[in-house]
Amino acid sequence: MKRVLIVKVTSLGDIVQALPVVADIKRAFPGVQVDWAADEAFAEVAQWCKGIDRVLFAPLRRFKKARRWADLKAIAASIAELRAYRYDYIIDIHGVYKSAIIAFLARSSRCIGYQSQDLGERGAAFAYTGRFGPRPQCNAWHGMRISAGEALGYEVEGPPVYDLKLPEPVRPPFEGERAPVAALFHATSKDDKKWPVSHWAVVGTELSQRGFRVVLPWGSEGERIEAEQIAAQVPGSKVLPKMTVTEIAQMIDACSLVVGADTGFVHLAHALLKRTVMVFVATSPEHCGVEAPFRSISVGDGLSVPPISAVLDAIDYVHSKPPAAAGQGSAAA
């Protein structure tokens, strides 16, 4: 086998958690070229993975919102790039119309996708010449690894390997800061996934008392206002300026601890082997959580608001072993 295309278009957390498929394929087939197709908004995340040989991207999300001619031209150009090589296999681990269209346009006689009951959009099945087995009884992230292995005929082995290398920042994110830094990712894409601002303030205050410098990132104006509400109650905390995806990743990489809701940047913290606590309010930790012994843990049942005490206990857990022991790989992420 010479070349494989992985199709996982969005979103940030899903792409991050799909990246171990690349290391699995390269272990099973030394020398194979692995390309990745993504939305332009998340292409840089795939570009950080050292195992990916070529990242193909187009402004699909932006075109859907704005319908601009320039974006349509960029999509057309990306199709030509997509078809520049013939693939031995195309693996669609996304399973919706847009990923299936990408898989259909790429050049290969073998395109593997999910069974109909496991697809995000059942019409995506038109693109596939073969199917994965039934969705395995495990979390979504390990399930993607198993599905890719089924498609290409290898067994999944060991913990997930993300193999990320971020670009060097222009200057260290916390230059001159002597205290360990804890980032609180209070913001989420959906309101029902939010943990209360008052809870974040209590956790932030406790971390400040433990000697952490608490920082609060944000993306929208509403998130900035909430960050300022939390910071007003947490001694010595700082609301960060608005940053790009790369800048946030570099900031995470400089942190000693990341605590956050079920959001893409917290998944990235886990993949960067940071001490990570993910708080679940309305989504399933069994399906979408993170876990690595003494380094990453998910809190909550996905049906109710987790108590503050549970998050503080989780912070204690990820700090209960020294960095060398806690940072060894990641269990079923």
Automatic annotation (TrEMBL):
Membrane topology: Peripheral membrane protein
Listed Pfam families: Glyco_transf_9
Gene3D superfamilies attached to this UniProt entry: Glycogen Phosphorylase B
Protein's gene: waaC
Main location: membrane
Record protein name field: Lipopolysaccharide heptosyltransferase 1
EC number(s) on file: 2.4.99.23
Keywords, alphabetical: Cell inner membrane, Cell membrane, Glycosyltransferase, Lipopolysaccharide biosynthesis, Membrane, Transferase
InterPro entries noted in UniProt: Glyco_trans_9, LipoPS_heptosylTferase-I, LPS_LOS_Heptosyltrfase
Localization per Swiss-Prot or TrEMBL: Cell inner membrane
Catalyzed chemical reaction(s): an alpha-Kdo-(2->4)-alpha-Kdo-(2->6)-lipid A + ADP-L-glycero-beta-D-manno-heptose = an L-alpha-D-Hep-(1->5)-[alpha-Kdo-(2->4)]-alpha-Kdo-(2->6)-lipid A + ADP + H(+)
Source species taxonomy: Bacteria, Pseudomonadati, Pseudomonadota, Betaproteobacteria, Burkholderiales
